[in-house]
Write the structure tokens for this entry.
Amino acid sequence: MTWTSIFIAGLITYFTRMGMVTLINKDIFNENFRKILNYVPSVVFPSIIFPGVLLEDYGSLVTISDPKIYGALTAIVVGYFSRNVILTISTGLASYWILIFAQLKIAMI
Amino acid sequence: MLSKFQIFKIGFFDVAPHLLSVIPFGIIFGAIGIELGFDPIMTYATSLIIFGGASQIVFLQLLSGGASSLIAITSVGIINSRHLLYGAVLSEYLNKLSSIKKLFISYFIVDQGFAVSNIYFKKNKGQNFSHYHLLGSGITLWLCWQISTIIGIYLGSIVPESLGLKFAIPLTFIAIIINELRKLDHLMVMIVSGLAATFFYNAPLKSYILISPLIGLFSAYLIIKFKK
């Protein structure tokens, strides 16, 4: 049963990948559609980023002191000025970990 | 004129920084699969057959939580529906390829590969073998995902949960779109989509992953209209 589900989920996923590449004709694009498609990365990625930062695993809002918020802000500031992918991710993670361990220390005291 | 292999290598180097988050994510996924009670072969098979990180985690989570196959499969479809949008963007550049090549290259369309190759395509319009960039980025990501899943299956349980490596996922995506932050219209659309995703996060079947980009695209449409 699980194997069947994996194969069906795989087929559907593959269809989402090849559907538009093989079935769509370039002439279908008009100028407005092309302009809107330019925004695709700007609508998809924030849809993953925001819940990943602002929500707990079970879907409730995080508190203002959550390390994830400051990790994300660090990454945004560093990324904005450095334009460097590795630096953005690593400083984001580093600040997140520092805060987690700082909070652990405080909790232990 | 760059050779096919040179373009392939550019694809590899462009996507390489993203491996910093893809590899930990793969390890985490492998570990989660085992933790949820799936056997190693089944956990690995999802990486080979579905090949979509977030959707694989949701898929196994739902099945292990007693959800029906139908719900698990639908969730995978909804989460991965974003590839339709990627495909629509990429089809402009892959148009010249034969159907067989299109079917092959499609398998390698993933978030990070799309992001870096789309930038390359925009800068190198009319270049003959530019699709090798997508192959370079896609195959690199594919290989790393397969290997890191396997590492995760065997070693992942050692990584302490308190490290919260999952947080590398939003950070990667921040790194991907950081340059768009400089454009006010994109910034507005990002905030709309992000808030919509947060608001609709608990919608059935994880459908927020489809609802919020659509809301974002609608706001983009309004911005385009307003600009005119």
About this structure: The mean pLDDT of chain A is 88.
